[in-house]
Amino acid sequence: MAFKEVLPKVLQLEGGLKLHRNPTEQAETYAGIYRKAHPTWEGWKWIDRGQKPPFELVESLYYENFYKPFEKVKDEKVKSLLFETAVNLGVKQTVKLLQKVLGVKTDGILGVITLQALDSVPEEDLIRDFTLARIAFYTALANKNPKRYALYLRGWVNRALEAMSWVS
Q1: The sheet that has 33-34: what strands, in order across it?
Q2: What is the pLDDT at residue 26?
Q3: C or N terminus of the chain, fewer CB within 10 Å?
Q4: What would the 3-class secondary structure string for the chain be?
């Protein structure tokens, strides 16, 4: 699944091209783009004027920040899964989760060792194991800080299972 195919699915998981504020966040989010995490995104200028930003600005942010870091991943399904996860967890945490599943050093860097380990695992096994590890990560996060994260747990689990269904 190429970037242009998976982006609409990711945007749907992010609530579409809408402006909203999550209960535990300090700033608004548009199309899954959290202002506090991406304060210099050009789309905020449009939103601050009460206008809808051009889709190209959304597309560019997602590509540069969340898809491009995985361009060395050969398998398109795995790349799509990692991209979708990075939108939710961030690139470094996504790579650490992948590394944990692969049994390599968890430094958050998608380097040669991680890529070699990734290439040695059957796609189906990786997708299953990564999704299970992702659900375990979300569960641990919610258990560690229930006041902040428990309300998101069901949605996170559903999101992980939905993304897995695209690539399985």
Answers
A1: 19-20, 29-30, 33-34
A2: 87
A3: C
A4: CCHHHHHHHHHHHCCCCCEECCCCCCCCEECCEECCCCCCCCHHHHHHCCCCCCHHHHHHHHHHHHHHHHCCCCCHHHHHHHHHHHHHHCHHHHHHHHHHHHCCCCCCCCCHHHHHHHHCCCHHHHHHHHHHHHHHHHHHHHHHCHHHHHHHHHHHHHHHHHHHHHHC
Residue 82 one-letter amino acid? L
Contact yes or no for 115/72 (Cβ under 8 A): yes
CB-based contact 10:23 (threshold 8 Å):
no
Cα separation of 74 and 161, whole Å?
22
Residues in the chain: 168
Can you tell me which residue has the tokens 């299953």? 128
Quote the tokens at residue 29: 């989010």
- The mean pLDDT values, 10 residues at a time, for the chain of 168 residues are 93 94 89 95 97 98 98 96 97 98 98 98 97 98 94 95 90
pTM of structure: 0.94
